[in-house]
Amino acid sequence: MKLEDILNKYFGYSAFRPGQREVIEKVLDGKDVIALLPTGMGKSLCYQLPGYIFDKPVLIVSPLLSLMQDQVDQMKQFKEKRVVALNSFLNPMQKRASIQNLHDYRFIFISPEMLLQEQVQQKLNSMELSLIVVDEAHCISQWGFDFRPDYLRIGQVLGKPNRPPIMALSATATQKVLGDIEAYLNMDSPYKFIHSVDRPNIHLGKMLFQGREEKIEWILDHVTKTAGPGIIYTQSRLKTESLSQRLLQSGVTTAAYHGGMDPLDRQFIQQQFIDGSLDWIVATNAFGMGVHKQNVRQVIHESLPSNMANYMQEIGRAGRDGEDSLAILLYAEGDEELAKFVGIDDYPVDAHVDSYISYRSRNELPTSMIHNGEISETAFRVLDYWMNQLQPADVKQRLSSMKYEKMRAVEEVMDLIETNTCMREQLVHYFGQTLENRPEDCCQCCGLQYENIIRVREIIDAPSKELNWKRRIEQLLIGFS
């Protein structure tokens, strides 16, 4: 049966999108693959279709619980019953049952942390997998070194001599990140499909302000006058709350979203945004990965992104339907210093290295550093990983280099703020590519007119736009009582 026939049988499509066929054919030939496909280009089909051809389990390592759960739910909606997610949403009984019956599933989603658990490894070692997929593979480089070192161990865990092909998927990656992906996954001369990172329908704006309050006032004015749906990114959890409240008071249907919220609250707000009950989300960068909303019209960065890759990932959440969308980068004097501080604030320092050694010399567990309030859990994970990889002096050098890289990455974003030449060209060039064509209203430096891209906001006063989600739940429950 031809690939197109299989595509039509399981997914109802008559043709592949650019890159899908090439990636699938290489996997079917047994080759490792790195595929960079922009958001909305159908990365998941690249492993789902081989899963039906091989008819042996496909293991998908996924970075976020919400992303994992969303993918599982989507597959179940398309009548795929042999799919499971191994994550913290499972209670102990469900987890034991899932692991025990893992061989019965066609698609197995798992987090890097769960993958390292001994009982999971034992079960996987007893199974014959058809394919190993690392989704959002840029996280190996962007997150692994910083606060989830378990990403750097994926290749060690899965690197059996007779392992199946490994497929690494992402939307964006620099040459350095591509190198990290290949090295840390122990890939064997992988085939690389690199699609252009340029999204011509996303028009790039930027605004410069004297002070941060002036910037906030501009956001309030702009959002109340123009149409969403949209996402406003900011670095501070506190700011997500305060800015969303000010927008609420201005009559905009919005909610805050950040990593400190209860997971169920986050899930509910995310679903409200997807189904159109909320027009805007004010969020930290905890929001976005795995949010399948096609019609996001605007992405506004209130704070300076910590690096160009994050910026590209975040603006890529706009315009997945192919329609014109607007990404606006805002800057006020001193924003770069705040971004640098936030970037390195939770990093281990030399004193932590010395303390770690001291605990070991006293035959005490270094994890006591967390319990004694000496270091955060996130910083300890980074410290512990490198202390088991390198000598102490080398760990100090590594941590110093990582901090320097963080600060340099902020300066690269500042280049985008300061440039007088085409923002799109600079952005594409950062990822080692060449811009082929400039769309009309390309960017701020090319004469972008916002009114050509976004509509004026329609004021709708309807019960369905009620913002207080707790009140909405109460009303729903009353309706069922």
Outline the structure in words.
Helix content is 44%, strand content 13%. By secondary structure, it is α/β, with parallel strands linked by helices. It has two domains: 3-194, 3-Layer(aba) Sandwich (Rossmann fold), CATH 3.40.50; 202-338 and 412-476, Rossmann fold (3-Layer(aba) Sandwich), CATH 3.40.50. The strands form two sheets. It has a seven-stranded parallel beta sheet, with helices on both faces. A six-stranded parallel beta sheet has the order 8-13-12-9-11-10. The longest helix is centred in the last third of the chain and has 27 residues, at 392-418. The radius of gyration is 23 Å and the shape is globular.
Write the layout of secondary structure elements.
Blueprint: H1 3-11, H2 20-28, E1 33-36, H3 45-54, E2 58-61, H4 65-77, E3 83-86, H5 92-100, E4 107-110, H6 112-115, H7 118-125, E5 131-134, H8 139-142, H9 154-158, E6 166-170, H10 175-184, E7 191-194, E8 202-209, H11 212-225, E9 230-233, H12 237-249, E10 254-257, H13 263-275, E11 280-283, E12 298-301, H14 308-315, E13 325-332, H15 335-344, H16 350-361, H17 368-371, H18 377-387, H19 392-418, H20 423-430, H21 469-480
InterPro entries: DEAD/DEAH_box_helicase_dom, DNA/RNA_helicase_DEAH_CS, DNA_helicase_ATP-dep_RecQ, Helicase_ATP-bd, Helicase_C-like, P-loop_NTPase, RecQ_Zn-bd
Protein name: ATP-dependent DNA helicase RecQ
Domain Helicase ATP-binding: 24-191
